[in-house]
Amino acid sequence: MFRTLSTMFLCSLSIVFGSLHMLASIPTSCAAPSKVSPQNCAASSISDHESSIAQPTSNRSTDSLAPLVARVAPIRADIKEKWMIGFWPTRVTPEDEKYYFQSGNLNKYLAYNLVSDLDRKPIKGKCNAGVYASALSYGGYRPDQLVVKVLRQVLIRDRIDDKAYGEAMALKLAGLYVTSGKEVLTRRNCFGITLSTSRPAIIMKKVEGMPVVKTPTWIRANNATRNKMVNDIKERINIQLMDLALEHRILFNDFHPGNIHVVLNKNGTLKEAKLLDYGYPGLVAIDPTTKKEVLEDYFERRWVEGWPRYEEN
């Protein structure tokens, strides 16, 4: 009996300390909304200076005219512009909370973790727990037309992080959103009691194509042809970016080659180029008075950083 009581006591201690360790290990920006700057939650492909734009200390408000209070973190002068307000969304309304992440348990839709076209590694990040092929149809879409993205945030009391709302909202604006809910994680403790936690999950339309650098046409092309392909892609992406910025005051700030999928015609010319990955920290809220020419200038400068021009013979 003494041995049984000792075992139960040790088991209880392990649960308590295990829970404390789990909570302590959750990044503050990936867990419940926090006033701490979420730099540690940036995607691995984003440099530190890009993930340190002014972040609102409080995004939730029932007052549509509530002022935005931002805490400015040190950032590179050539990245941060005066017309950048902070990471998008600057607020989440009660209507947003009622609309998004209401589809319950989405576990049955998770087939297998997709891999990156660039390095063939599973698609995951510091805020992204995995992008999965869909196992089932949904909303009139076949499984091969869908992907499911699970965010790494562990929900505490079912509290969804504003950045998760932001990604779902941006996908809807881009015409890619289908529905959203949660991935439910369960385990049994040493008493045989089932414990469960959950993470936000979004079902979205699959963006066809692949990064241009992985296409046979690009691999065979000379530098002059590659420069023309890049210019064609740039024109298409500029239109999408400006539509989002001018109509919704959101700047897509993460248009490196891995975040753009292209579809080529049989003759190798560009048929389609589309932005993908609307997750944090790729979206920036901009001042409503920002003019198009200012945004165009910023786009030109940022494009060169990710898409250098090839020297032609």
TrEMBL record:
Name of protein: Protein kinase domain-containing protein
Keywords recorded for this protein, A-Z: Signal
Organism listed in the record: Lentinula lateritia
Secretion signal span: 1-18
